[in-house]
Specification:
With about 575 residues, the protein is α/β, with parallel strands linked by helices. About 35% of the residues lie in helices and about 15% in strands. It has 23 helices and 22 strands. Bound molecules: flavin-adenine dinucleotide, thiamine diphosphate and magnesium ion. Thiamine diphosphate binds next to helix 17, helix 19 and helix 21.
């Protein structure tokens, strides 16, 4: 590391500042406009991981951030390198994931001239970044990097992009770390509620007969798992989680009811509709969670604990809003929450649960077919006792994972919720493994999404990254096929999907690969994968036309769920 107040090139200042921000790994792909920065990497201790597509770099940075809570970093050149990052940036934005993307830009004198590989990437990414910067001088680099990291991780986290012109990378400036400290007037990420607002919330909790906590991603972001559990236990309030909140409370905890929403548990959705008080903790009432907002939880008062004031009354009107960090707010409330007898409410929920259990695919007779739900459940049984991270893609397999992998610990599920980005799993899984090398990382994509970013198999091999890949291969863009089955008269337009022989593909990269067609082979193959000290790919060839149940159709009320037909229907032409 250079001395304080050393004169360095903008490129060296960039890496120096990243090191001081604690960055150990970056994910990137070089090109002309970022080449001075790449050249200066030789002076840095930061490990650069060469990706195969810049979208992959952003998902890796995102997976890295979600696995740890720290900031992930992705690097690309100008023009096509930068525009390839757009999907990953939007993915991080929707799920409040802190990443910093660094892009090279053409020389400052060429900006606006349609120079070779010039794109106005700050313009392009304005609506999908928390903040972005165009840096045209070396003496702006340090302050910009420090501010970018501060913005990315403070308050509601999110992606920040720094676009640095080639001349700013090449010219010299003095690096004065202290003078570069963030000074942002008008940015107030640390709000806290008023005393009366606490009083109002506590009063509502005291009076409630059928309260329910809706726990979201904010639990994990603020690290409020312990406080949530203590709050729920002390006030005797059951907890439902959003997709991104899974792991925020142990699945085995008796007050944890499971996932809410479009593919949530039926008893959870019914309980939401019957509740007289909803306590929304670090969740943003996404439409996948509420269904039709006109009929959502009609008889309930609502308390919203949320760090971003813009989320208050955005989708659902609430009675009391506590704006600030969830963990701090729960700490404040905990000593004042009273134990209350809610036996009647708990008994009602237990009834609802019993009614649903008979429809669960786990409780239906074994038909000899391989169901994705069974694969996921077996994977959970085999990996539940270790430090396991499951990274899913988007589609039916993602929902089955949420339903049948019982997450006990925070940051053990990484998935793209808000944008629903296919192609996320493999690169995000790489990022997670780099961030937490001791963890057993399982990448769980569908056959469709895997084909969007499977080029990153080469990254795994080049960097010797041990991830296990469990492709849930149903020969369809399954989630879209399900919508066609339910809402478009089974017109399977553009959803049957051929794939390469995934075993041969894996082997072509030098990755040990297996195909599994029978349930009895699931556990031994998972065990073999865990024992092998290199990456492993498993092609789980599952039932082709199974659907995810229950389902709340888009725009329907939360209690109007499509339920699994009973007995189990045999479908498709599988053997
Ligand atoms: C195919 C598909 C199906 C889906 N089905 C479902 C479903 O059935 N059920 C479901 O739940 N989701 C589902 N989703 C996901 C859904 O789209 C949303 O991504 C998800 O519900 C959002 O969860 P969230 O509000 O907890 O997290 P986020 O969208 O990440 O929101 C987190 C909130 O917490 C706030 N916050 C952040 N930090 C703090 C802090 N320190 N203190 C307080 N607040 C904080 C943020 O400002 C934000 O408002 C599905 C997604 C896909 C792709
Ligand atoms: C980049 C992108 N394009 C399109 C979609 C729309 N979409 C949502 S789920 C899905 C099907 C996913 O198929 P697959 O990866 O095989 O998973 P499955 O649903 O079969 O488990 C599609 C096309 C999307 N979410 N992301
Ligand atoms: Mg599929």
């Amino acid at each position: 590391m250079a001395n304080d107040k050393a004169t360095l090139t903008g490129s060296r200042i960039l890496w120096e500042c990243l090191e001081r921000e604690g960055v150990k790994h970056i994910f990137g792909y070089p090109g002309g406009a970022i080449l001075p920065a790449y050249d200066a990497l030789k002076h840095s201790s930061i490990h650069h991981i060469l990706v195969r597509h810049e979208q992959g770099a952003t998902h890796m940075a995102d997976g890295y951030a979600r696995a740890t809570g720290g900031v992930g970093v992705a690097v690309a050149t100008s023009g096509p390198g930068a525009t390839n990052m757009v999907t990953g940036i939007a993915t991080a934005m929707m799920d409040s994931s802190p990443i910093v993307c660094i892009t090279g830009q053409v020389g400052s004198k060429l900006i606006g001239s349609d120079a070779f590989q010039e794109t106005d990437i700050t313009g392009v990414t304005l609506p999908i970044t928390k903040h972005n910067y165009l840096v045209t001088r070396a003496d702006e680099v340090a302050a910009t990097v420090r501010e970018a990291f501060y913005v990315a991780k403070s308050g509601r986290p999110g992606p920040v992009l720094i676009d640095i012109t080639k001349d700013a990378q090449q010219s010299n400036a003095e690096l004065d770390w202290e003078a570069a400290a963030p000074k942002m007037r008008g940015y107030r990420p640390n709000l806290s509620p008023e005393k009366e607002e606490y009083e109002q919330a506590l009063q509502l909790i005291r009076n409630a007969k059928r309260p329910l906590i809706l726990g979201g991603h904010g639990i994990l972001i603020s690290g409020a798992e312990m406080e949530l559990q203590m709050f729920a236990e002390r006030a005797c309030v059951p907890v439902a989680l959003t997709l991104l909140g899974l792991g925020g409370m142990p699945a085995s905890h008796q007050l944890n009811l499971g996932m809410m929403g479009m593919h949530g548990e039926a008893w959870v959705n019914t309980a939401i509709q019957e509740a007289d008080l909803l306590l929304a903790f670090g969740m943003r009432f996404d439409d996948r969670v509420t269904g039709n907002i006109k009929t959502y939880a009609p008889n309930s008062k609502k308390i919203h604990v949320e760090i971003d004031p813009a989320e208050i009354n955005k989708n659902i009107k609430v009675d009391v809003a506590l704006v600030g960090d969830l963990r701090k707010i729960l700490q404040e409330m905990l000593p004042r929450v009273e134990a209350t007898d809610r036996r009647e409410w708990m008994a009602r929920i237990a009834d609802l649960k019993g009614d649903s259990a008979v429809r669960d695919i786990q409780n239906l007779p074994d038909s000899g077919h391989l169901y994705a739900a069974h694969v996921i459940n077996d994977l959970w049984r085999e990996t539940r006792h270790g430090d396991t991270i499951v990274v899913t893609d988007v589609g039916q397999h993602q929902m089955w994972e949420a339903q049948y992998y019982k997450h006990e610990t925070p940051r053990s599920l990484i998935t793209s919720g808000g944008l629903g980005t296919m192609g996320f799993a493999l690169p995000a899984g790489i990022g997670a493994k780099v961030a937490r090398p001791e963890a057993d990382v399982w990448v769980v994509p569908g056959d469709g999404g895997f084909q969007m970013t499977m080029c990153e198999l080469a990254t795994i091999v080049q960097e010797k990254i041990k991830v296990n890949i469990a492709i849930i291969n149903n020969g369809f863009l399954g989630m879209v096929r399900q919508w066609q089955e339910f809402f478009y008269d089974k017109n399977y337009e553009a959803t049957p999907l051929i794939s390469p022989d995934f075993v041969k593909l894996g082997e072509a990269y030098g990755i040990r690969s297996y195909a599994v067609k029978r349930r009895s082979d699931v556990v031994p193959t998972v065990q073999a994968a865990r024992e092998h000290n290199g990456p492993v790919l498993i092609d789980f060839q599952v039932e082709k036309e199974d659907s995810v149940y229950p389902m709340v159709a888009a725009g329907a009320s939360l209690h109007e769920m499509i339920r699994r037909p009973n007995p189990l229907m045999e479908t498709g032409d599988d053997e």
